[in-house]
Amino acid sequence: MASRCQCCSAIETIQHLFIDSPTADTVWRHFADIIHITLRPREGFQYRFQAWRFSGQFVSTGHIRTIIPLLILWFIWTARNDAKHRDIAMEPRRIIWRVYHTISLLHTGRLFRHIHWRGDMDIAPIFGVIITTPSHPPPTLVFWRTPPVGSYKINTDGCVKDRESDSTLAIHCITKGGGPWHIQATIRHIRHLLALDSDTITHIYREGNQVADLLASEGWDRRCYHEYSSQDLPRRHRSLVQIDRFGLPTVRGL
Ligand SMILES: [Zn+2]
């Protein structure tokens, strides 16, 4: 036997309860107006989901335009159950308030990230959400320093793309200790070799080690052994060597 809707005298169907009923319609309209989405009356709720998802340029999983429809459906459902089993009237205002409240809780629990509001930053304050853009450290000048007279400096760079943090970590393991147990024997051996000639190792940002960085990325592209002499060094490499020789800085973080 078909049951009667909890908000009006219509027959309760999924389509009526979640989309067409006056209660559902008021709730959907409230949020559609904020996000500037045009609702097509009586559309199936799968179509409505898709309409919200494709309404923004940057919508991905977890984006506010996918979360709001889910919350609307969930709180319509709980309001319907409250009306049916606890005799609490179905109020669009209460459903709307619960959607706001849950978004605010998700924000406080840090479950939203910057990308979840991408393209919709202007409406975030309506939900009590303050989005701070990730801050980048200011640019710094990086120099290649000439070694003291009587000593040599070997510039190296691993032939691995975009893994500067790995070399920082390796140097930390050698100079300060730590690192996984299975490389401890190797680390002890490196320390022993360094101590023999009182050698030191330091980390420098790739911007301050441009020649080695360029050679390393060339090695990555070629995947074969190649050696340059000072005569056949390409112009680009030569100009980077000159920058180091003259002690000119390069900028990191622009
Ligand atoms: Zn109804």
Automatic annotation (TrEMBL):
Family annotation (Pfam families): RVT_3
SUPFAM superfamilies recorded: Ribonuclease H-like (SSF53098)
Domain RNase H type-1: 164-218
Taxonomy, superkingdom: Eukaryota
InterPro entries (alphabetical): RNase_H-like, RNase_H-like_dom_plant, RNaseH-like_sf, RNaseH_domain, RNaseH_sf
Name of this chain's protein: RNase H type-1 domain-containing protein
